[in-house]
Specification:
By secondary structure, this protein is mainly α. Helices cover 53% and strands 5% of the residues. Among the domains are: 110 residues, no CATH class; 76 residues, no CATH class. The strands form two sheets. It has a two-stranded antiparallel sheet. A two-stranded antiparallel ribbon has the order 3-4.
Length: 285
């Protein structure tokens, strides 16, 4: 976790090979490249941003709780007399903080854990969520651009069987990458906009369903929801929008904000249902 495991190396190698084989450059002649330099540059830039985002996701620790270095600050109802959290993880024996969950694959408690990405051997957590989301974004947009370039150059592929075969494979792979990346991206943007993790969404789903059955307009309310704009800033940073789409880490301040309960949301939650449960189960992607 937070490094290149053998599985991650193999996965990254497969991704790079797939991008090289199915990307637009292989489908172009010199004449085509000369007339479509702008589209080619955009495509290559998207591939580069995707590669950097994906590598950052793998290399950056998702956020862990280390033994003997647990935070002293916690919510009042979760603390003991010494000001530390009273709940201890039964697996790794660290004092848990709100929104942390133990990952049996990594063997550690992960801050704001979404799930364990087994292909890359690391968790999607508080500190690498931005890179994971950006990798999905650039995979989605990059594959769409590549698909457009490949299809507009289709007439150059029908002169031989190898050309036809390369065209069909490229279109199929690019389309599959686009669909999968778009579905995952949609899910994560929806979660980020509400400051929810996938685990928290699953944990609270039944409670939300009960509220809906009673006719209560819950709007996916939970105590860590600070509003869409603040929630997005907690992941992508509080700087310019340009920095949001670049694979650079946001400040520690915005990370901390995401873990602070919203008093207004907490009060509304108590009025509606008495609060949601805060279990610590592990959920796969």
């Amino acid at each position: 976790m937070g490094g290149l495991s053998p599985r991650a190396v193999v996965t990254l190698a497969c991704i790079v090979a797939t991008a090289a084989i199915t990307g637009p450059p292989i489908m172009m002649t010199a004449e085509y490249q000369a007339s479509k330099v702008f589209m080619l540059a955009i495509s290559l830039a998207l591939y580069a941003l995707f590669a950097v985002s994906l590598a950052s996701f793998v290399m950056v620790m998702p956020g862990t709780i280390e033994k003997g270095n647990e935070p002293d600050v916690a919510e009042p109802d979760d603390t003991t007399a010494n000001g530390k959290l009273g709940m201890t993880c039964r697996d790794c024996d660290v004092i848990k903080v709100p929104r942390s969950h133990h990952c049996s694959q990594c063997g550690r408690c992960i801050l704001r854990m979404n799930y364990h990405c087994w292909l890359l051997g690391t968790c999607v957590g508080a500190k690498n969520l931005k890179f994971y989301t950006l990798a999905l974004l650039y995979a989605c947009v990059g594959s769409a651009v590549s698909l457009v370039i490949t299809c507009t150059n289709a007439d150059r592929s029908w002169t031989s069987f190898p050309g036809v075969f390369a065209f069909v494979v490229s279109v199929a792979v690019q389309f599959c990458v686009f669909v999968v990346a778009a579905l995952y991206l949609k899910r994560h943007i929806w979660l980020v906009a509400r400051n929810l993790t996938w685990i928290e969404y699953v944990e609270n789903l039944q409670q939300w369903k009960k509220l809906s059955e009673k006719g209560v307009q819950h709007n996916w309310l939970h105590k860590y929801n600070h509003g869409t704009w603040a929630n997005l800033q907690s992941v992508f940073g509080d700087g310019s929008l340009l920095l949001w789409i670049l694979p650079v880490s946001p400040s520690k301040k915005v990370h901390a904000m995401a873990d602070q309960p919203n008093p207004t949301a907490t009060q509304r939650l108590d009025e509606m249902s008495g609060g949601f449960s805060n279990g610590h189960q592990r959920v796969e992607a």
